[in-house]
């Protein structure tokens, strides 16, 4: 009976631990629709248009332009970038076009895609081409020599890489959207960055008590809905606590099974 109670308690604790684990594996919530989605793109890293995760940004441009967007990604997230290019009228094109989607981190290091069609060639009569790139899970900390994704700003670059010179300058439209899946404790590591890899985009003048002006960097305005380093809590904490409880219960159960019935009544205490 005692062992049965111990097993029942262990199963209950495992069920409690599974709840946050399931929540961590669900896609992150999209931001509210109050903020208008951007309708233009930048032409370089410095002028990249900021977008929030869950927003569908649009832009118009010309074939041959470099289109840039930026978005925030925090530790424990696995971002997926999707882009749709609306091609010019087929009658105005002379051949197929090859489009490419690249993603860079806050240090402007090109990040590899785990899966997704990062480069695609559209036929001459195609109306659009769809691209996708799922990054590796963003880590809270990494070795300096590694190329692991780290918390901060990520840049999207969309451009055509193969077309005839006669097709340069034709009008195109683009749609870009970023979603993330929260991986949870499976991607947790020991360590964290002091600051996210977010570039300074401006300076502001501040006055001290002595009225001497000083300039300080103003970081990018985009960040996760609940702030940076929001992934400090993970289900790894829960599973660690559950493991300790189960170990204690196993020790108690083992002691109860092996201790016997105690000293026989016929044996005097001083024996």
Features:
alpha+beta, 271 residues, elongated, 2 helices
Could you give the count of β-strands? 12
Q: Distance between termini?
A: 33 Å
Report the biggest beta sheet as strand number plus sense, adding barrel if it closes.
Answer: 5 strands, mixed
**Which structural class best describes the helix and strand composition?**
alpha+beta
Residue stretches low in confidence (pLDDT < 50, at least 5 long) are: 17-34, 201-211
Mean pLDDT: 78
Give me the oligomer status. single chain
| Main β-sheet, spatial strand arrangement | 1-3-9-5-7
* Element-by-element helix/strand order: HEEEEEEEEEEEEH
Beta strand % = 25-35%
Total number of helical segments?
A: 2
Helical percent range? 10-25%
Q: What would the principal axes of the Cα set say about the shape?
A: elongated
Our Rg estimate from Cα atoms comes to 28 Å
List the helices and strands and how they pair.
Layout (H helix, E strand, L loop, with lengths): L1 H23 L24 E2 L5 E7 L4 E7 L3 E10 L10 E8 L8 E3 L3 E4 L5 E8 L16 E11 L8 E12 L17 E8 L5 E7 L15 H24 L13
Parallel strand pairs: 1-3
Antiparallel strand pairs: 2-10, 3-9, 4-8, 4-10, 5-7, 5-9, 6-8, 11-12
Helix pairs in contact: 1-2
